Amino acid sequence: MENIVLNNNIVQLYHGSKSGLKGSIRPISRELCDFGKGFYMGTEEMQPLTLICNFPQAVLYTLELDLTELKTLEMEVGLDWALLIAYYRGKMDFAKGSKLYQKFSSMAKGHDLIIGDIANDRMFVVLDRFFAGDITDVALIKSLSALKLGKQYVAISQKSCERIQIVDEEKLSESRRVTLQLESEKHRKEGIRRADEICRNYRREGRFYDEIIGGGADD
Fold first, then answer.
1. pLDDT per position as a tens digit, 67-81
2. How confident is the model over 17-60, as pLDDT tens digits?
C-alpha cells in the first residue's frame, strides 16, 4: 500500500502508542530503532496495530504530516538501507572508526525526516548472521524486505514533529486486541519461515560482509 497523499505535500500516516500520547509530539523514541531516535509513523495501519495489541491501553492514531520545507532522506530497499538500519540498531558498533561506519553515522545529519521501508524486529537475527559471514548482502536485503510492511516516516527533528497533526484516535477494545494478537503471531511465524527460505535460496548470490568492508560500501 502506498502512502495516502491528501493534497500536495500532506500525507496520511499511522502511529501506535502503548498507552496514548502525552503532551506534544516529539522525536523521543528509544534510540535503537530502525532509523534512530524520532517519532515513528507508517503508511500501513496494520503494522503499528500488531506492535501495540498486547497493551490494554493501546491507542492507534491517524495523522497528517505536512512535508513542506522538510529536509528528507529517503532510503530505497538496498544495501545502504540495510546498513543504515544496522547502524541505528547498534549492529555496526564494532566497526567504529571505519569509513563505512562514518558514512552511515553522518548520513542523516541535517535532515528533518527519514523515509524508508520497515524492517521487522524479528528479522535482526538475519543481520547478525550477515555480520558473522554466514549469509550475503543479497540474502540480507531480501530477508529484511520480504514482509513488505510498508513505509515508515520518522520525524527526527522538532521541526518535523511540529508538522504532524492528529486527525483521529482509536483506543483498542479487548476483543480487537485478541484478534490482532492472533494475526501478529501468524505473521511472525510466516516471517521466520520466509527469512529462512530466502537465506537458503540466495546463499551463493551477493557479497559477504568482509568483502564489503574490504572493497567499500560504494563498490
1. 999 999 999 888 898
2. 999 999 999 999 988 888 999 999 999 888 888 889 999 999 99
- Mean confidence (pLDDT) of the chain: 86
The CA-based diameter of the chain, rounded to the nearest angstrom, is 53
pLDDT < 70 positions in the chain: 1-7, 120-124, 147, 214-219
Which among 190, 40, 6 is positioned nearest to 116, based on CA atoms? 40
What pTM did the predictor assign?
A: 0.85
Separation between Cα atoms, residue 16 and residue 27, nearest integer Å:
14
Residue identified by cell 482509536 is 170
d(CA 203, CA 195): 12
Q: What is the DSSP string of the chain?
A: ---EEEETTEEEEEEEESS---SS--S-S-SSSTTSSSEEEES-SHHHHHHHTT-TT-EEEEEEEE-TT--EEEE-SSHHHHHHHHHHTTTTGGGTTSHHHHHHHHTTTT-SEEEEE---GGGHHHHHHHHTTSS-HHHHHHHHTTT---EEEEE-SHHHHTTEEEEEEEEPPHHHHHHHHHHHHHHHHHHHHHHHHHHHHTTTSS--HHHHHHH-TT-
Query: CA torsion 114→119→122→125, rounded to 10°?
Result: -90
